[in-house]
Amino acid sequence: MSRGLALAVVLCAALPANSARRLVGFAPESAVQQRAAEAAFAAILSPDRVRDWHRTFTAEPHPAGSERNNELARYIAEEWRKQGLEDVRLHRYDVLNTAPRSVSLVMVAPVRYEASLREEPLDADPETRHPKVAPAFLGLSASADVEAAVVYANSGNPEDYAVLRDQGVEVAGKIVLVRYSNPYSYRGFKALTAEREGAAGILIYSDPAEDGFTRGPVFPDGPWGPESHIQRGAITYDFIVPGDPLTPGWPSLPGARQVKPADALSLPRIAGLPLSWKDAKPLLENMDGPVAPKAWQGGLPIEYRLGGERVRVRLKVVMDNRVSPNYVVEGRIRGSELPDEWVVLGNHRDAWVFGGVDPASGSASLMETTRAMGELLKAGKRPRRTLVFCSWDGEEVGLTGSTEWGEHFKDELMAKAIAYLNVDSSASGPDFQPDAVGSLAPLLVALAREFQDPASGQPLVEALRAARSKALAEEGVKRPLTDDDLVDVRIGSGSDHTVFLNHLGIPTVGLTFDGPYGVYHSVYDGFVWMNRFGDPGYRYHTLLSQYWGSLALRLGNADLMPFDFAAFGRHLRSFVETLAKATPKGRLDLSRVRAGIDAFEMAGTRLTEATDRLLAKGAIAPDLAKRVNQGIRQVERNWLDPDGIPGRPWFKHTLYAARYTYAHLELPGLTEAAEDQDWERAAGQAAILEQALKRNTDLVDELARTLSTAGSEPPHP
Ligand SMILES: [Zn+2]
């Protein structure tokens, strides 16, 4: 061993001891206990157990409303009781579920072709022959029986229809054929756009350029989608209001008031089907009309045309959309000292088919997390605060179960919840992709420093840095990354965090390991795919459980909540600068918003300093900690505007919402007003933002002063 190497070993060995003394939000003594709890938790986790859970969840198709999915709800409840979770119960919500009665698509001209609407079984994955695999459909599609000419409309976004108009291609009364797109655009927005354009129906297909052979080898030889794979999915307009379409804004408890389907804002009026490229190709290659623009040409070896006359299809969709139960499973570990402060963890259970990645990977990680938490409890290690675990239903239909549960327990959640930690898919590859509201992002980075990437043995934070710099480079960011870049703080919709963040003002975190994944929502997304490509050995599933559980324990045990409002301020500034860049000069005065952010950031720094100073001295008086922690929860609630954002009153957060495509949308009320060039509305929205910033600067300052005053007194006995 060379001398240099020996020195390096000594330095490395010294680091963990140092960092054990410093744990954000913890006094030195509680930090030692916390480290021990996290180590004990990690030691229980087992990749083999995760694999067993995954096997169970992927054994049969289990869409929302199906008998199998309800059976899995009872199974989870039973397992949680065995694991030692407390207050385990099933919440029933009567919601509009969706299934097809019959679907067909026949090209009637210029040649006859009947779409199979089925995926081909593969010997390499015998489950693809499972008798319960339903024909593909779009969730909450309308019913229709129409014959019309077909127009190719690229991604089906509004700008695509503008191109068609320029080319003189009529869309009204026709059936539009659009592709799933990259970057992702929620299929429900494609349906709404087609409906607004007066189309008679919509077909959404998977072009190989998006998720098939253009990207790489296809299943079973690689992770990408084979010829006949179909991306199922809902087209619910849940970007207007999520949850059960018949109870917008209130819980679908049995017997609850319902609106008429004709009055439901989130119900599509258009009928549609998803297609494999195998079924779309005969249509595309027979199209007439102008050659489609270069950017619209896909991965098939044909010349894509706009169509409009020659290809005619008969689309027949008979849906069986009716009210039936969804079940949310809830279990807890009651807090030893602060049972009325909650950390909520959740994952959805329902899958379009087997749900190998989406969501059974997450369900497996959830079950392993609860198993280890139960073991800790049995060993006498109860967290100080309550951990609430939820298995959601109907996420795939309209974020339904989580939304109904959030509306059901609205008041309690707003009073008690510290954070919601969501895991949808836990692993489809090795790339860690955490997201969080700005105040929680630094905590996620701190945790990533403490874990190892199983493949490289490197600290997880380095793997994260590499993955983020690649992702940001693709967005054109060239500068070296700082810690503020590592966690995605721009949060859209498309999963169960939505009700917590956007409706209730509860800070959220989302965790996933990502990778090449071309079988999303298809029959091939199953156990075999996961074991060949996604996460053979289940190391990333297990790491996710470790990270998720450790994060829950940090929030569940901290002396003072480790929320970083100075970091939040820096992120808010970048939100405002993005908006300013996109706004014509002189139209919108953002100076007071900018000044408000500066003040908020400085208050955040003062709070962090006061917290660190006080905690470094040792234990903090329980009543003082309780008061300050309650204030910190209130800061997050203060971002809500009770009136909601203009046009979408259910979405109440002034900093976060999603576009209709599910893409992230920051400062939503203000940004949408500016994009509409409605400067009066924009000024009104800016004023709402200024008030929220002022309220929170005052509150954070008051909390900092409270801690500083306490810190100048003799230490608590
Ligand atoms: Zn999912």
Summarize the structure in short.
The protein is an alpha/beta fold. Helix 18 (565-582) packs antiparallel against helix 19 and helix 19 runs parallel beside helix 22 (679-712).
Structure commentary:
This protein has 717 residues and is an alpha/beta fold. Helices cover 41% and strands 16% of the residues. The protein has a 7-stranded mixed sheet, with helices on both faces. A 7-stranded mixed sheet has the order 3-2-10-5-6-7-9. α2 (28-44) packs antiparallel against α17 (539-557), α9 crosses α17 (539-557) and α19 (591-616) runs parallel beside α22. Mean pLDDT is 95; it is low at 1-20. Zinc ion binds at residues 348, 358-359, 395, 424-425.
In whole angstroms, how far apart are the ends?
50 Å
* Number of distinct helices: 22
Structural class call reads: alpha/beta
Q: Please state the CA-atom Rg, rounded to the nearest Å.
A: 26 Å
> Which molecules are bound in this entry?
zinc ion
Strand content: 15-25%
Flag low-confidence runs: 1-20
**Helix content class:** 40-55%
Question: Strand order across the biggest sheet?
Answer: 1-11-13-12-14-17-16
Provide the residue-averaged pLDDT: 95
**Number of strand elements:** 20
| Major sheet characteristics | 7 strands, mixed
Shape: globular
